[in-house]
Amino acid sequence: xxxxxxxxxxxxxxxxxTASKLFCSCPAVFGAAPNEQVCEVCxxxxxxxxxxxxxxxxxxxxxxLALNCTINNYSLFSRKNxxxxxxxxxYQTSQFVPPVCENGYLNxxxxxxxxxxxxxxxxxxxDAGKCVHVQDATLVDLNRAGTPLIEIVSEPDLxxxxxxxxxxxxxxxxxVSIGATDGNMEEGSLRCDANVSLRPLGSQVFGTRTExxxxxSFRNVQKAVEYEIAxxxxxxxxxxxxxxxxxxxxxxxxxxxAMRSKENAHDYRYFPNPDLPPVLxxxxxxxxxxxxxxxxxxxxxxxxxxxxxxxxxxxxxxxxDKSAADYFEAAVALFPQGRRIxxxxxxxxxxxxxxxxxCAAAAKLGPADLAELAAMIDKGTISVRxxxxxxxxxxxxxxxxxDFVSERGLSQISDSGELEAAVDATLAxxxxxxxxxxxxxxxxxxxxxxxxxxxxAGKANPALVNEMxxxxxx
Length: 474
Ligand code: ADP
Ligand code: MG
Ligand code: ZN
Known about the structure:
Radius of gyration: 30 Å
Helix content: 40-55%
Bound molecules: adenosine-5'-diphosphate, magnesium ion, zinc ion
């Protein structure tokens, strides 16, 4: 059987986090009633003139800087012509040549191995509206029409479904960390098209590719690419050739389906949009925006490893969620044991946040509260187990864990004077076991610990009970 190499290039679309649309002042927020956020410009009325949103340019340039691109001080908007019922202009206003950013790269790391993935270009464009299919009609909602997007086009440098998903994850983390997008994938703020082809291992020429459109989760990137690899392999092994086409991923059935034969750039009849002057970005402006960039996820993860002693994957997972990473930094500033804080976040806080569908910043239990909880565990005021048991309630009500534990009388008894009576009574009540223990059945220690815990309603500090029993039993 022939061995194949997989070649993948992604086109990632991100909705820019601007207050208004790309070429008009309609709000660019999600969730309004249909056609509430529409004007002459974004509904394509004849003669209406577009005006470029500067914030969108700033966010596109910042994305380019974060992805190591060259920023073009001169770029153009073109018309990319096609017909869709939800594209009122009859063309998309997009950047063709030159785009605002090009020639960048992103390093992705999988199992400790780093690989550089080229970024061909980043361009700005407006989004289409959407068709809503009802019983026997199709309705058009133009709220989304004209919202600003950037499209990030990768070089065909990715070599597996796993790499493609990781690329998408890192793009997401970077764009969210610089505030370029809200990154809400369920609402379509970040989606990608996956171009996939196979070629005989060792071959220098690329095989024919298919392009799977509108994939909107990390998991689906992986699934769609895996499906395409298997499908193309089966075709090639049957001696069939791959048809260059556009396909759609059906998430429910976990497969891709042919949608249309693939168009080429010349089919769009691109030409410079006569209604928009060239986009001129002064070098000083670029420098100013570069200075405004926050620390990016990769260096941040390195810092978490070096400064707080986190494991690499622990740090990587924290920085992939900016809100969680910020929360971590605020908590660790108050209780400087990074691993304890990270562990509490991973096993308790982020789990509850996910269940509640909120980000760490929105949790009522703030970083100071979590730091207090970590300190209580550290001092032995409560056990890790008690912390786990009370966490859902702490999370739901927020506020000081110390107050909660005192109110409920959940503090561990860590004072040997207070535990003495319970320990003595346990030994007095179980003379046979005491004798057996002294005769060599040292496993009985846990039996005594259990009895003492029973007498103290589970509040005795187990380490202390162990120590007291050992010394009394000799
Ligand atoms: P378009 O899809 O708009 O026609 P391009 O030809 O520039 O645009 O390619 C888009 C994407 O397809 C890029 O991410 C590129 O890396 C990727 N690509 C190009 N050729 C191949 C190939 N043979 N196999 C896999 N990906 C490819
Ligand atoms: Mg494409
Ligand atoms: Zn508008």
